[in-house]
Amino acid sequence: MTNPVPTTPQELASFIDHTLLKPEATDADVVALVEEGARLGCFSVCISPTFVPLAVATAAGRIKVATVCGFPSGKHVSAVKAAEAAQSVADGADEVDMVIDVGAAKAADFEAVEADVRAVRAAVPADRLLKVIIESALLDDDEIVAVCRAAEAAGADYVKTSTGFHPAGGASTHAVSLMAQTVGGRLGVKASGGIRTLADALGAIEAGATRLGMSGAATVLAELAGGPAAAASGY
Questions:
Q1: Which residue in 30, 32, 36, 128 is deepest, having the highest Cβ count within 10 Å?
Q2: 100: closest CA among 112, 83, 88?
Q3: How far is Cα 143 from Cα 148, in angstroms, rounded to an integer?
Q4: What pLDDT is attached to residue 228?
Q5: End-to-end CA distance of the chain
Q6: How confident is the model at residue 137 (pLDDT cuts 50, 70, 90)?
Q7: In this structure, are residues 34 and 230 in contact, taking their beta carbons and an 8 Å threshold?
Q8: Contact present, 26 and 54 (Cβ < 8 Å)
Q9: Of 140, 78, 157, which is closest to residue 105 (Cα–Cα)?
Q10: 3-class SS at 46?
Q11: How far apart are CA 11 and CA 121, in angstroms?
């Protein structure tokens, strides 16, 4: 399942979760990220849970606020993931991106994967989006399909390729395409990890991504607008 390819910076920006998840990020960094994301017209900013209250206050309704849960390893007890998600929602997050237990997927224990997602879904109200990070670079095709099916069965709104933190790699067009085929438009597909150029971004969308996680939105949008000079005018 492919999507229309954006032809303007505004169209592409509407796909982007402008992301800052570095552990060394400061309050000032997050304020700058929110201001830049709002100026560029990005869909959301994605920040660590401790920054949710600051991001929500800074955004003031101009841009959605997303955060992460069980990040980046996914090796958290489900109840802990659920508590973390519940706190983020209470702090005002619009979206939560949770990491699965990849080891359970590699052991073909997809019931455990589904139960883990279901626990977090119970903590994230239906009016807030839940995205499920599957770390696709670590999975074979059969595992990707099975994990996407487990996420859908558990009530997720999106499946997402990667944390961007694992050395195995980030999003690939093959994984995005397979994920999109598996969820068949019933869930969104977020490509994240290693999307640094306009070609990366458009390739992911052509493969079926409905959202992009990226930290270099300004550079990519400027490339679509016609080069670095465009950055001075907002892209």
A1: 30
A2: 112
A3: 8
A4: 52
A5: 29
A6: very high
A7: no
A8: no
A9: 140
A10: strand
A11: 30
Q: Phi, psi (5° rounding) for residue 21? A: -125, 15
**194 residue type, one letter:** G
Tens of pLDDT along 52-86? 999 999 999 999 999 999 999 999 999 999 999 99
Quote the tokens at residue 192: 């994240």
| Largest distance between two CA atoms of the chain | 51
Beta bridge partner(s), residue 192: 213
In DSSP terms, which residues pair with 214 in a beta bridge? 18
Task: Report the DSSP beta bridge partners of residue 65.
Answer: 45
Helix (H) or strand (E) holding 65: strand 64-69
DSSP 8-state secondary structure symbol assigned to residue 137 = G
Active site annotation includes 160: yes
Catalytic residue among 94, 97, 101, 116: 97
- Please report the DSSP string for 176-234 in residue order: HHHHHHHHTTSSEEEEESS--SHHHHHHHHHHT-SEEEES-HHHHHHHHHTSGGGGGGT
Choice among 64, 81, 131, 160 that is catalytic:
160
